[in-house]
Amino acid sequence: MSHRYETRLSHMGRPGSRVHGFVNPPVHRGSTVLFPDCAARRAAAARRFDQYMTYGTQGGPTHYALEDAIAEIEGGSRTVILGTGLAAVAVALLAYLKAGDHCLMPDSVYGPARNLANTLLAGWGVETTFYDPCVDEAGMAALIRPNTRVVYTESPGSHTFEVQDIPAIARAAHARGAKVLMDNTWGIHHFQPFRHGVDVSIQALTKYVGGHSDILLGSITVREEEDWRAVRGAATLLGQYASPDDVWLALRGLRTMAVRMKHQEAAGMAIAEWLLAQPQVKLVLHPALPCHPQHALWKRDFTGACSLFGVVFQPRYSIEDVQRGIDAMTLFGIGASWGGFESLILPTTGHITRTAGTGDYGGPMARLHIGLEDVEDLKADLARGLAAMG
C-alpha cells in the first residue's frame, strides 16, 4: 500500500519493534567500532561504499535512519549526512572538481558557496564562471566548455529568488558530459530534483528538517551508484561527519515538518500578498505570486512554496531607512538562517555580490522568513516597521 507524504514522513526512519517498541530510535554515539574477528573487519572495509561501519566517521544507525528518510523525501537512492549545509556544498563540489576543471554557478548563488568557489576552488586550480540564473537551454549550452565538469544550480536563488529552468539546464549539461548539482533547500519536498535532471541534490537540514533553530546539518542525495561513490568517497576522504545528537534532533524535527511547512507556506503567501499592497514596497520576490517573473516555471516544476522570500522597497528609501524599520519590529528577529519556528528579517542590499549583471532591482532589499506566529500579529509588526521607515 502506498501512503501519502504526510503519513510516510511520520513513520520513516523509525525502528519499530527492533528496539522493544519505543517510537523513536536511540542515539548511537561512538568512534570505535569493534569486530568479532579480522575477517569481519576486512569484509566491512571492502564494502566501504555501503553502510558498514569501520570507524565512527562512517556514521551509525542514527545517521542511517536520517539518510534513508532524506533519500525518500528527495526521491533519490542514497544520502550522506554532513555537519553543515556548507559542508554538503563543499563535499559535493570537491567530489567532481579537480585542478584544470571548470564550474558554472548561478549569479544568485548562496554567498558562502560563491566564496568557496572564489577562494578554495580557485586556489586549487578550478575556474568558476557565474552565469545569469535565468539562462535558457541554448544559453547554458554556449557557456559549457570542454573542461566544464559541474553545472551548479540553486532554485530559487538566494535573496532574489530567481527560479531556474532546471530541466533545460540539465539537458544542456548532460549533452556535454557535465554533472548537475542543485541546492534544493528551498524546494525540499516541493521540488523533486531527480525527476528534473539533477544528479546531486544538496540540502541544509538546518532549515525545515531541524525546524527549531538548534542544529546544524547538511545532506547530499543522489540517485545513481556512480554519484554515490563520488560523494561518499569525498566525504570519507575529508573526514566529514555529523553529530549523532544533531541527527537525532533532525529525525525528531522531521515528524512535524509537513505540518509546519503547510502552515508556513500559507502564512508566507498571506504576508507576501499583504506586502504587495503597501506603498513602501516596490516588489515582492516570491515565486508563488503570479507577478513573479518566473512564476510559470515555479508552477510547472514545484508543488508548493516555502516561507522564505524577498522584498524590494521603493527607490526613495535608503538602506539606512530599511534598517531603521527593521529595528522598530519586535516579532521579526534579525538573523541569517531560516526554516525554523520563528520569523526573521534580514536587510540584503550590500550583501549581494553579482558579476554577471543580474540582481539589480532598483531599491533596497530585505529577506523575510515567516514562522509560526499569528499572521495578523506579523502584519502589525511589519506595519510598525514600514511606518518607521518614514
Walk me through what this model shows.
With 390 residues, the protein is an alpha/beta fold. The protein folds into two domains: 240 residues, 3-Layer(aba) Sandwich (Aspartate Aminotransferase, domain 2); 132 residues, Aspartate Aminotransferase, domain 1 (Alpha-Beta Complex), CATH 3.90.1150.10. It is built from twelve helices and twelve strands. The strands form two sheets. The protein has a seven-stranded mixed sheet with strand order 1-7-6-5-4-2-3, sandwiched between helices. It is globular. 47% of the residues are buried.
What does this entry show, briefly?
This protein has 390 residues and is an alpha/beta fold. The chain has helices at 5-11, 38-46, 61-74, 85-94, 111-123, 137-143, 166-175, 225-237, 244-276, 295-301, 319-328, 375-388; strands spanning 78-82, 102-106, 127-131, 148-154, 179-183, 200-203, 218-222, 281-285, 308-313, 333-334, 344-347, 365-369.
